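Hi there, hope your week has been kind to you so far. Thanks so much in advance, here it is.
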Amino acid sequence: MLRHSVRFLVYLTAVFLASCKTTNPVSKPEPPLAEKTTPQDTILSEKPPVVVKEPQKPEEKQPEIKVTKMAPPLDIYEFRAAWVATVANINWPSKSGLSTSEQQREALKLLDFLKENNFNAVIFQVRPQTDAFYDSQLEPWSYFLTGKQGKAPEPYYDPLKFWIEAAHNRGLELHVWLNPYRAHHTTGGEVSDASIIKKKPDLAVKLENGMWWLDPSKQGTQDHSAAVVMDIVKRYDIDGVHFDDYFYPYDSYNNGKDFPDDISWNTYKSQGGDLLRGDWRRQHVNKFIKRVYDEIKTEKPYVKFGLSPFGIWRPGYPQSVTGYDQYEKLYADAKLWLNEGWIDYFTPQLYWRINQEGQSFPELLGWWERENRENRHLWPGINVGLGGDDKNIDETINQIMITRGMLPESKGTVHWSIGPLVAHDSLAIALKEGPYKKRTLVPASPWLDKDSPETPQVQTSVNNDRLHINWNHPEDDNIFRWVVYFKYEGGNWDYKILDQGTKSYSLQYIVGNKKKKMEQIGVTAVDRTGKQSEFKALKVN
């Protein structure tokens, strides 16, 4: 009884002190403070923003804290990404030859959209046609960037570096998207002297639709494309490397004719090769995929490698599926790559509707899941370009919900592409008010790193009816997110995800007409591979 009386006196004292600071009654509880605002992006400047610390207010009587170890109270993992295509200026920049400031403003608008709508990753195309959206010694500046292949932006900046920093400032992972074999696109302007077609003509062949393609069977092709990947991995602070469905080209690019690799094939046969031509082609692609995965993991194990192949492996798999045969036409044995775990995440392009006969979205997703023997992330690609009317919005949301239900251990979706999301306000609003209402963490990849980060050291204080939470961590440089969990008396757990650099958060200490106090809080550290530290629930009395 004595302890309860003391607490009641402390509470009355706090109420009295609070009443002396304002004459305006509070009609409803103040909401939790928003996350720290995104650092201001400075165009053409690498100077860090100046952070002005507010003076600390006098602390009031502090609550008693009791620590309990437990599992994190909520599952807050889901991969939410969108592709940003640069080939043919599909998504960015809106046209080639824009000024540096115009390019940067367009980029920030797209990244702001993703942050505001609770996405957590962007898949950014940096090599659409053996060229570069970054400063490269291996390949020329992209025509789609400046309007002339080999010409740098003016005034100079490095677009990839700009995108990475701006994405990370907004709590987004950035995955670089490369086309490993396409040497020149029909919309890519003139073939310049800086192009690989001129520099290494023995590697490239011309297709009848005007495209040029690197011969995947050539060792020089594999060495060059692998070197491009690793150059980016070594020099840039990326979170992932991503290939899409362009391995051997679609046969329509060559007017239905076979890929023109007779020279390579005849050389192989003359040296005693005994594989069938299709198996020989697939063997080279398989070798390249495995090589890229191994080299990335040797250099930076935390950098994820993802693939988004055509959504059907072969007609008849599963039995009712009909359509294009990537195994036989693109010489891509995507099932093998998934079976063997040569990727960290797998994003088949399932661009069909749920009830589409022959290519049903859930039926194909279920088949790929059964082939996921190494338990890698399976985050399907969906087509949001169907439109912004009610029917298409329902289709998009239903596909997200089906994915969550079928893949509860690692939820996630990749959206093709960011263009329709930005163009259709109704679609973006429906996502944010529905399945993307709250921010999420990128699912952890435990095979990349078995060790979890240490638990932050947390301190709390109460000031002006707000609970202030501060924390420290011995390995700040290796932490990329923080999660603050909190629970009021009689309520459910809630959470807030905060970005690297944030070390404090503030919440209303007492809420509602019934004066419900904060009951428990906890803070976890999240490392680069998505693992959370051990959760310690702090009971606030």
Notes: Residues 112 and 170 are 7 Å apart (CA to CA). Residues 277-299 form the longest helix (23 residues). Residues 1-39, 45-52 have pLDDT under 50 and may be disordered.
